[in-house]
């Protein structure tokens, strides 16, 4: 059976060249779950640090793997120095994990008076909003990235996003935030709260009796009061919230930012990778390339898969050399996996011929420490 013409080889994604480029200040990795995205982000940050960059890696993924691989007992909202990094070249590495609520608290404390901040932080609706409200994590990721970029401590920020399509939800944060703040209910609650006293109650019951009756049944009268009080307290901060989110969004579109899509040679993972590539292109975000992890390599100098299977069958029929026959079958299986990986990768490159790709071979085990991250980093330079 004729397999058909081979796809053109995609351009090579030179990760070392990217991280050596001092104009690049932000690298954002995105990809579906289970493809090694967190490990890739950590390896990029470590390699950059040991090539002279002052790097910090920020994970938005709640997985603890990043802390373990860097020898840290935990990660939190404060950047922590990673020990054991070869700093002879002048580089260094810090690591942190986004704490959504703590970041929100910091915003409140920084952008309002101590008295107003105390009032906001104690508000029950704020406590719920800052911990679990839909979209809060994405906005706080934008806020934290903006904070890190404003500091002069690092010349490279590596962002490890959550798995699956939510990885790019933070790109929608400014728009979602604007919709929330401009929403009719928020304007109603803020306006009626500012009216105060009996006028407040009169407006609620006269103009919006049906709405408030339903809300009171759902939320409870006390919570409704907490919401309106919260909106009133935050009113002066709303403009700053949106402005900073929009500034960070604009920063992500600048040439100093590079997005890296991470995938594995699996149909679902590369389908997600295609989604990321298309989404980044639609939003005019600077895509650097694709890191294709866990690729099985073929041994061009060895015997082919069919030859290995035939030789194994001959040995098995003779009843001798069982170990050799087993090794031949293992070799054949690996070659079949390599062929499958190559074909799946070719499908992606056929659909996205302009996207540079670097292949990371499948390793014998998982990465658990800095040496493992260094091994991954060294493979970035392999062709």
From TrEMBL:
One MF term from GO for this chain?
A: ATP hydrolysis activity
Domain ArsA/GET3 Anion-transporting ATPase-like, by residue range, is: 25-297
Fetch the InterPro entries from UniProt: ArsA/GET3_ATPase-like, ATPase_ArsA/GET3, P-loop_NTPase
Pfam families xref list: ArsA_ATPase
Q: Where are the transmembrane segments?
A: none
Q: What is this protein called?
A: Anion-transporting ATPase, ArsA/GET3 family
**Lineage in the entry?**
Bacteria, Bacillati, Actinomycetota, Actinomycetes, Jiangellales
């Amino acid at each position: 059976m004729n397999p058909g013409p081979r796809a053109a080889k995609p351009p090579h994604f030179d990760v070392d060249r990217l991280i050596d480029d001092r104009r690049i200040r932000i690298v954002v990795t995105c990809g579906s779950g289970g493809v090694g995205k967190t490990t890739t982000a950590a390896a990029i940050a470590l390699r950059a640090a040991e090539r002279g960059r002052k790097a910090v890696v920020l994970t938005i993924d709640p997985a603890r793997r990043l802390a373990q691989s860097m020898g840290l007992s935990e990660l939190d909202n404060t950047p922590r120095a990673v020990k054991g990094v070869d700093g002879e070249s002048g580089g260094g590495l810090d690591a942190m994990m986004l704490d959504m609520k703590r970041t929100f608290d910091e915003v409140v404390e920084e952008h309002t008076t101590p008295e107003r901040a105390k009032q906001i932080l104690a508000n029950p609706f704020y406590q719920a909003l800052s911990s679990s409200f839909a979209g809060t994590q994405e906005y706080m990721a934008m806020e934290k990235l903006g904070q890190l970029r404003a500091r002069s401590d690092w010349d490279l920020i590596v962002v490890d996003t959550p798995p699956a399509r939510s990885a790019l939800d933070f790109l929608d944060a400014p728009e979602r935030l604007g919709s929330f703040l401009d929403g009719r209910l928020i304007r109603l609650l803020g306006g009626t709260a500012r009216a105060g006293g009996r006028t407040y109650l009169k407006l609620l019951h006269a103009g919006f009796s049906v709405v408030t009756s339903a809300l009171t049944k759902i939320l409870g009268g006390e919570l409704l009061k907490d919401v309106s009080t919260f909106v009133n307290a935050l009113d002066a901060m709303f403009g700053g919230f949106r402005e900073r989110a929009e500034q960070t969004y604009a920063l992500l579109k600048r040439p100093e930012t590079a997005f890296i899509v991470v995938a594995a040679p699996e149909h679902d993972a590369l389908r997600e990778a295609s989604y990321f590539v298309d989404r980044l292109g639609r939003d005019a975000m600077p895509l650097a390339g694709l890191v294709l992890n866990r690729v099985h390599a073929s041994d061009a100098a060895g015997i082919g898969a069919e030859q290995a299977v035939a030789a194994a069958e001959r040995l098995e029929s003779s009843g001798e050399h069982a170990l050799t026959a087993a090794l031949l079958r293992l070799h054949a299986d690996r070659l079949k996996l390599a062929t499958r990986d190559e074909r799946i990768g070719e499908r992606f490159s056929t659909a996205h011929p302009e996207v540079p790709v670097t292949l990371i071979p499948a390793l014998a085990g998982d990465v658990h420490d800095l040496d493992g991250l260094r091994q991954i980093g060294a493979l970035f330079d392999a062709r």
